[in-house]
Predict the 3D structure of the following.
Amino acid sequence: MRVATAIACIALLAGCSSVNTRTMSYATLAEARDAGAIENGWVPRGLPDSVFELRIAYAPDGFERWGLINFPASAVDGVRALLEGEEVPLQGVRCDVPPRIEWWPVLVRGDLDAQRLAATGTRAYRSRDRKMIFLVNWTQGRAYYWTTG
């Protein structure tokens, strides 16, 4: 009985941790900058000014960050400048995103399926500072990123 109660309490606490997650949206990088999103580490430093439709989520009491950026073809080099050159193998990579972040794709939740992501044109990279993983679809001009710890 005690073990069952302990397991139930742990599950409840884990489920409630996402309740504190904050989400925000910005139309432009300038708007995100003015709101302090870059200074607070919610949006990566060095993004090209032309990125748009940014969405972020973060845990106020932790280091976790999740984000989505869109970028025009003219910004590809600027986005690449933030990333290590080689792709990251996704075998064994997991993305634990809180369920309440509804804009985060189902395909990028939990254990990542490298083959399915590759089939969508998505490629994985580490940020140059090695603090984030970026999943980028260069054709669509969209990138998802999250902190790795």
About this structure: Confidence is low (pLDDT under 50) at residues 3-18. The longest helix spans residues 2-16. The radius of gyration is 16 Å.
